[in-house]
Amino acid sequence: MSAQIIDGKAIAQQVRVELKARTDALKARGITPGLAVIIVGEDPASKIYVANKIKACAELGLHSEHIVMSADTPEATLLAKIDELNNDPKIHGFLVQLPVPKHIDSNKVLLAIDPDKDVDGFHPVNVGALATGNMRFAPCTPWGCMKLLEKSGVSIEGKHAVVVGRSNIVGKPMALLLLQANATVTICTSKTVDLAKFTRDADILVVATGRAKMITGDMVKPGAAVIDVGMNRDENGKLCGDVDFDAVKEVAGWITPVPGGVGPMTITMLVANTVQSAERTQGSGK
Ligand code: NDP
After folding, report:
1. How many CA atoms does the CB half-sphere of 191 hold within 13 Å?
2. Residue 106 pLDDT > 90, yes or no?
3. Structural domains in the chain?
4. Averaged over 62-90, what is the pLDDT?
5. What is the pLDDT of residues 221-237, one digit of tens each?
6. How remote is the CA of residue 167 from the centroid of ligand 1, in Å?
7. Which residue's alpha carbon is nearest to atom 30 within ligand 1?
8. Residue to mutate, 170, 258, 268, ligand 1, most ligand atoms under 8 Å from C-beta
C-alpha cells in the first residue's frame, strides 16, 4: 500500500494561518513582530533563502529588514550591526545568513547575537536550553519536521525514532526534539556500521545527510513515518531528497516529498520563532 504523502506546503499554509492570527493579535496591542536578516556577500543560494524569508514576513504582516553587507565587510562592522539589532526594539529576532565570508569568524558572530533574539536557535544558550528540556527557540528545520509529524497525526511517544545525520542545524536538534516528545532515539552517522539494521527498526525515520536517495525501500520498516530533510540534485539535475521516494512510498506509512515536504516548513518556523519572541516581550508568550 502506498504511503500517505505529507504535504509540507499545505501544512505550512495551515501554520501560517495560525501565525497570522497571533501576529494580528500582537498588532492590536501595538506590537508588530520584527525580523531582520543580515546577508554578507553574494552567495546566490543565500540570496534566494533570504528573499524567501523576507517574503514570508511580508505575507504575514511582520516588520522585516533585509540588511545587505558587501563581501569585504570587516568583522567588526558586522559585530557592530549585530549589537545595534540586539538593542533595536522593533526587531524581535534576527539572523546572519550562513555561510559568511572566510575572514569572518562565524562562531564569534553567533555568540554576539542576543539569545533572546536568536530565532535560528543556534546560540549555545538556546542549544543548551533545548538539551536540558527548557526549549526557547528550536532550530527551524527540525522544529518544522516535528510540526509535520504532529499535523499528520503521527504519534511519537514510545516510538523508536532514528535520525540519520548529526549536524548542529538538523540532526542533533532533531534528536533532542524527538527525545523531548518521549521517543526512544537513535542517531546514525557516516560511521554507523550496518545503517540498514537501524533504519529498518525505525517507527519514525528522519534523514538529513545530503546523500541523494541513499535510503532505499528495503531500509524502511513497513508503516514507518519517513521525513526527508535532504535537498540534492539527482543525475538529471532534478531536485531530490536523501530518500528514494518512489521506492520508499510503497513501504512507509507516511512520507515527505522533495520538494514540497520539509522545505516549506523551515521558513514558516522562522516566522513562528519571531512571533513567539514578540509575544514574550509583552508577557503573553507561550
Ligand atoms: P551536514 O553535511 O552538516 O551533515 C550531514 C550528516 O549526515 C553528517 O552528520 C554525516 O555524518 C551524515 N552522513 C553523511 N553520509 C552518511 C551516510 N552514508 N550514512 C549515515 N550518515 C551519513 O548536512 P546538514 O545536516 O546541514 O544537511 C543535510 C541535508 O539536509 C542536506 O541535503 C541539506 O541541503 C538539507 N537541508 C535542508 C533544509 C530544508 O529546509 N529542507 C535545511 C537544512 C538542510 P558524519 O557526522 O559522520 O560526517
Report:
1. 2
2. yes
3. 30-114 (3.40.50.10860), 140-263 (3.40.50.720)
4. 97
5. 999 999 999 999 998 99
6. 6
7. 230
8. 170
Q: Tell how far the Cα of 182 is from the centroid of ligand 1, in angstroms.
A: 24
Atom 47 of ligand 1: nearest residue by CA position: 190
Atom 31 in ligand 1: which residue has the minimum CA distance? 210
Ligand 1 binding pocket, CB closer than 6 Å: 141, 164-167, 169-171, 188-192, 195, 208-211, 214, 229-232, 262-263, 266
Q: How far, CA to CA in Å, does 103 sit from each of 106, 112, 173?
A: 9, 16, 28
pLDDT in tens, 192-232: 999 999 999 999 999 999 999 999 999 999 999 999 999 99
Q: How far is the CA of 190 from the centre of ligand 1 (A)?
A: 10
Alpha-carbon torsion, ordered 20, 24, 30, 34, to 10 deg? 10
Residue with the smallest CA separation from ligand 1 atom 42 is: 141
> Cα torsion for 214, 217, 218, 222, to the nearest 10°?
130
